[in-house]
Amino acid sequence: MRWLLTFLLGVVVGAGGLFAWLRQVPHEAPATTQAQAQVNTGSLPAPAGPDIESKLPPAPKVTPDLTELDLPLRPSVTALPADTGVPSAPAPSGKLMVPVEGMSLASIKDNFDQPRGTERHHEALDIMAPKGTKVLATADGKIAKLFTSKPGGLTVYEFDPTEKYAYYYAHLDRYAEGLKEGMDVKRGDLIGYVGSTGNADPNAPHLHFAVFELTPEKQWWKGTPVNPYPLLGE
User: Fold this and answer.
1) What is this structure's pTM?
2) Which residues contact 98 (CB under 8 A, 6 or more apart)?
3) 113-122 pLDDT tens trace
4) Which helix (H) or strand (E) is 146 found in, with range?
5) Residue range 35-56: average pLDDT?
6) For the chain, which residues make up each domain, given as ranges?
7) CATH level 3 topology of 96-227
8) How far apart are the first and last CA of the chain?
């Protein structure tokens, strides 16, 4: 009986010692191969990055080129250097009619090429007249374009019969009744009425009258300016 108790006591003491020893041994995770790590990493979803697109500035608005939609008071030209020796555009043959009814040549000032600010010159004549005064075709020709722009207001572009020159009438109050693009007009025909549309001073109605030599492309808004004053006759 005594030996049995001794045996059982030994078993209990040995089991306790074995349990204490196992607690002192460090446990290491099983090694993971590099290939396994790559596979596991690739299988995981990528962490969410910063929302870069929401922090970008808005794209700038692109403004279309509106050169033909909002023309200057004169046809656009390419400036020539002063020392090129290139002569100015030749004048149309024959005298042009003063395009405002009742106005004599003596009553018109040659204000062509007057400085306007620091960056441009006035490449036309301003013929002062009361609002509603008749505007007449300066010569035979064809109505190439009826156009409205911010600077010129209500305008008329007339080509001469050879389509080498164009006559430009701006700041009109209104067109003559029945005036249409493509129609032929004769010298002295009514085409409109003096006004102050566009950027003209409402207190100083006038006709802005320009002459220019057309380019080979016959573009109604482009050409080389010609001083109208020496071309006018009574």
Assistant:
1) 0.63
2) 104, 105, 108, 127, 138, 232, 233, 234
3) 655 555 555 5
4) strand 141-149
5) 44
6) 96-227
7) Glucose Permease (Domain IIA) (2.70.70)
8) 156
